[in-house]
Design brief:
The complex is a heterodimer of chains A (about 200) and B (about 170). Chain A contains six helices and four strands; from the N terminus they run H-E-H-E-H-E-H-E-H-H. Chain A has helices at about 15-25, 35-45, 80-90, 100-105, 135-150, 160-170, and strands spanning about 30, 65-70, 95-100, 125. The N and C termini of chain A lie far apart (about 65 Å). Chain B has one domain (about 1-160): 2-Layer Sandwich (Beta Polymerase, domain 2), CATH 3.30.460.80. Classes of the chains: A alpha/beta (about 200), B alpha/beta (about 170).
């Protein structure tokens, strides 16, 4: 059966359209803890101008963001904060691990520095460098845009709210009167440490 | 002015109780005092000798250090803001008695610096108004700037909930 398509009409999938909207309007959450944050600022400034790729609206409220950029080293005291901010961001959301420290701990192989945030939270894109040039970060954003377009929203993670909300609250372990999730007590002696990686 | 302070100290504490040394290159002047009398020395230096500014409080762990007899060296850096004179006061501490009198009653600024020394080395400051960890999380066990603490820690940096895509 032939369906006549009128002039100036394009037929496509709604999923592709939604992905196209999302990838060209990323709102980054700048989690800048070190010198990578300076490069992140340079990326947002006029010389490199990340607005060319639709990601210029840096927001400091996780509720308004969908792209977390972890720029800099994360220490064990900061990690619960980072996780909480990640959980507060609404779906759909993505994460860029910017620089050597966020990705691997970098040169800071000490007791307090987390050896790569991907051990404790999901990461979509890694940017090498110490710190990376703004061009590298822009390349990561372009690659992430490809990934968003490719993956689409077929899983519809962002629409499964009621059950997921309760799970999230349980994960945060929010007690009455507390504003920051209480980190689990440290059990000295590698109780919770992954055995395969250091 | 420099010898004046030393003369005063000699008159007050005698000549044998403390030792004086000077670094010619840096010009640092330092005295080593007995740990149990540290507070008395600091008070005398502040009240009688005019050292009104506590520049820094820090500590050195001499474990495995060549020729060292004592474990910890506690360091107070003082300055006289009128004359510009500076003096480093040190005392040595050994386990298990790692307690000295706090300098907070003399200099309010000693509060956080002594907390940091406690946080990193486990030196206890008697009479400190609020002696708890300042940099590390409260749950942290151990004192990481001690030389017998492993550089990569004891697993503290791994002990967190793992948040996956499904959970978040």
């Amino acid at each position: 059966m032939d369906v006549e398509v009128p002039e100036n009409v394009v037929v496509g999938k709604l999923d592709a359209l939604a992905s196209w909207c999302r990838k060209n309007s990323l709102w980054p959450m700048p989690f800048a803890t070190a010198c990578c944050g300076i490069e992140l600022m340079a990326t947002g400034a006029s010389r490199h101008d990340v607005a060319r790729f639709g990601a210029e609206v840096f927001r400091f409220s996780p509720r308004q963001c969908d792209l977390m950029i972890v720029a800099g080293r994360v220490v064990m005291k900061m990690l619960p904060v980072l996780q909480r901010i990640w959980l507060q961001m609404p779906e759909p959301k993505w994460c860029i691990s910017m620089g050597a420290c966020a990705s691997t701990g970098g040169v800071f192989d000490t007791y307090s520095v987390v050896q790569g945030i991907d051990r404790f939270m999901p990461v979509d894109m890694y940017v090498p460098g110490c710190p990376p040039r703004p061009e590298q970060l822009i390349q990561a954003i372009i690659d992430l845009q490809d990934k968003i377009q490719r993956e689409g929203t077929l899983n519809a993670r962002e629409f499964l709210t009621p059950q997921r909300q309760s799970e999230k609250r349980a994960l945060l372990q929010i007690l009455p009167g507390e504003t920051v999730p209480r980190p689990k007590p440290l059990e000295i002696g590698l109780a919770g440490a992954p055995s395969s990686r250091n | 002015m420099a010898t004046q302070t030393l003369d005063k100290l000699k008159a007050r504490f005698g000549e044998l109780a403390w030792t004086y040394s000077e670094n010619a290159a840096s010009g640092n002047r330092r005295i080593v005092v007995p740990a149990d009398q540290l507070a008395a020395y600091l008070e005398y230096l502040k009240v009688e000798c005019g050292f009104d500014l506590l520049v820094d409080v820090t500590c050195v762990d001499y474990l495995h250090y060549r020729g060292a007899k004592d474990r910890f060296g506690l360091v107070y850096c003082l300055a006289n803001t009128i004359s510009g004179e500076r003096l480093i006061v040190r005392c040595f501490l050994n386990e298990p008695d790692l307690t000295v009198r706090s300098a907070v009653p003399l200099w309010e600024g000693a509060n956080w610096m002594e907390r940091e020394v406690y946080d990193m080395f486990g030196i206890m400051f008697e009479g400190h108004p609020d002696l708890r960890r300042i940099l590390l999380p409260d749950e942290f066990a151990g004192f990481p700037l001690r030389k017998d603490y492993p550089l990569r820690g004891r697993g503290e940096r791994h002990n967190f909930e793992r948040i996956t895509r499904e959970k978040s």
